[in-house]
Amino acid sequence: MSGHNAAKDLANAGYDIADPGHQGTIGSPVIQGGVVSLVTAAAETRVLANPERAGLVITLALQTDGGDAVVTAASAVNQTGNNTLTLADAGDEITLKSIRSGSSFVYRVASNDGVELSTV
To answer: How far apart are CA 65 and CA 110, in angstroms?
Structure first.
């Protein structure tokens, strides 16, 4: 990436975040926003690490439904205290944005379509 093309290169960069697979950690740590297309072969789990800074946007979407994808966030994703996200059907998606809460960075729900939120 040359200095002349830096802005263009960043604008065209892919924002796919790899699905870590069953029992894997999404973004360890998350330093850039993007989309995680989850693929399950059976009921599977993932962990979502806390973000490294404010202003990140990450979308979790169930691409292939072989079973529920249960994602446990390192911190609550809303004021209710929910930290468990269950994506049950292909097309379920949730978009989270990172904010500073006290001295930490956490995710908060920006939009949700079909994802069940609960507390572990």
So the answer is: 23
Burial (CB < 10 A; 0-12, 13-18, 19+), residue 37, is: middle
What is the CATH classification number for the domain harbouring 95?
Answer: 2.60.120.640
What DSSP string runs through 38-54?
Answer: EE-SSSEEEEEPPBSST
pTM: 0.87
Residue 7 included in any domain: no
Residue type, 62: L
Does 67 map to a domain?
yes
Estimate the share of the chain in helix, then strand, then coil, as percent rounded to the nearest 5.
Answer: 10, 45, 45
Say how many domains are in the chain. 1
Q: Is there a domain that residue 8 lies in?
A: no
Contact 69, 62 (CB under 8 A): yes
Q: Which residue has the tokens 């529920």?
A: 68
Residue 27: give the domain boundaries: 15-118
pLDDT in tens, 68-112: 999 999 999 999 999 999 999 999 999 999 999 999 999 999 999
